[in-house]
Design goal:
Layout (H helix, E strand, L loop, with lengths): L5 H17 L8 H14 L5 E3 L7 E3 L37 H8 L4 H4 L1
Antiparallel strand pairs: 1-2
Length: 116
């Protein structure tokens, strides 16, 4: 299956939340508003430019980042979401089966909350 699973969304939300917290965004908002924000964020997110690693302080890592230089055979995926439980395979992409059509569906959402 090439669709995003719940685990993918959990990691994406954690990464989004960490990025927002660094900006000092007010966390006292309605859950519905936060859901709308996270879905809108990923509807506009340039997945082809970044690897998402929710465990990092800055969870969005550009493909040109020096930390990725040691990865042999680095290839771009429509969605690269680092598995936080990958152990020895530190940069394992748990989103490797998510296809470009799924990413396009996320980015084509007119009103993200109503699309779910």
């Amino acid at each position: 299956d090439t669709k995003l699973k719940a685990v993918h969304w959990v990691l994406l939300v954690v990464a989004w939340w960490k990025a927002r917290a660094r900006l000092g965004v007010d966390a006292e908002r309605d859950v519905g508003d936060l859901l709308e924000d996270v879905l809108r964020f990923y509807a506009e997110f340039p997945f082809g430019r970044y690897i998402v690693r929710a465990t990092e302080t800055s969870p969005f890592i550009e493909y040109g980042d020096g930390r990725l230089a040691a990865l042999k055979g680095l290839s771009r995926f429509p969605l690269w979401l680092v598995d936080p439980s990958s152990g020895e395979r530190e940069w394992y992409n748990c989103g490797e089966h998510v296809d470009a059509d799924t990413v396009a569906e996320i980015q084509a959402m007119d009103s993200p909350v109503r699309s779910f």
